[in-house]
Write a structure and sequence with these properties.
By secondary structure, this protein is α/β, with parallel strands linked by helices. Helix content is 40%, strand content 17%. Strands 1, 2, 3, 4, 5, 6 and 7 form a seven-stranded mixed β-sheet that branches. Bound molecules: flavin mononucleotide (FMN).
């Protein structure tokens, strides 16, 4: 079993990474593999809404790691999406990255890389904007039939730089408890599948635009 984690900061080794590392330690202790992918410091393209992904099964842009992430996601059993807070919202680069990852995987596959798998967003800020940012990332999960895992607080921690991360006792505790819950849900889902309890098939025929 493997958790795929996304670091949505352009700073590959900053606070977001430090939070994901805390979770990776818990996953390892629980016998769950994990991998951290970073959105990187190079430009990440925004979705153009060209819908070419509907024909090709992947995004037309191939130079910023989104298609590679979706390929890894197909094989993953759970997800953590981490972002720093920028002006009280998630980083622009994680939004561009996830718009394209989720949209390109929706057509044909019906979000096969993500659906019916556990997921959680974690957010880090110096001071404010955490719950608004958390809300934004959670929106990807609901429309993709994902299982949103919670912790003992909303999944936020506070740091200006990575050195601050261990000082936030409650925030780091929230991350550890979250990782334990994700590992547990993954194990429960596997036990269910092994016992013949398979995910339901979704109805997918109705697509009603609010246009008259
Ligand atoms: C452009 C920018 C905007 C920011 N906006 C906020 C904010 O709205 N609220 C806040 O508390 N911190 C804000 N911060 C601080 C970062 O969230 C904080 O330093 C975080 O630890 C950075 O994580 P990273 O090292 O993983 O990039 C901002 C930082 C930058 C660079």
């Amino acid at each position: 079993m493997k958790v795929l984690m996304l670091n949505g900061s352009g700073n590959a080794n900053g606070s977001t990474r430090a939070g994901l590392d805390i979770m990776a330690e818990v996953f390892a202790a629980d016998g769950v593999d994990s991998e951290i992918v970073c959105v990187g410091a190079k430009p990440v393209r925004d979705c153009l809404g060209c819908n070419k992904c509907a024909e090709r099964g992947k995004c037309v842009f191939q130079d910023d790691g989104v298609n590679e992430f979706v390929e890894k996601a197909m094989a993953a059993d759970g997800f953590v999406f981490g972002t720093p807070v920028y002006y009280a919202h998630p980083s622009g680069r994680i939004l561009s990255f996830l718009d394209r990852a989720f949209f390109s995987n929706m057509w044909g596959t019906g979000a096969a890389a993500f659906r019916q798998k556990p997921a959680a967003a974690i957010v880090v800020a110096r001071r404010a904007g955490t719950s608004a940012s958390y809300d934004v990332l959670n929106k990807y999960f609901g429309i993709s039939q994902m299982i949103n895992v919670g912790s003992t607080y909303w999944n936020e921690f506070h740091a200006l730089t990575k050195d601050d991360v261990p000082k936030d006792e409650e925030g780091t505790q929230t991350l550890r408890n979250l990782a334990r819950n994700i590992a547990w849900v993954m194990k429960c889902l596997k036990a269910g599948r092994d016992a013949g309890i398979l995910p339901p098939e979704a109805e997918a025929n109705a697509l009603t635009n609010f246009v008259r």
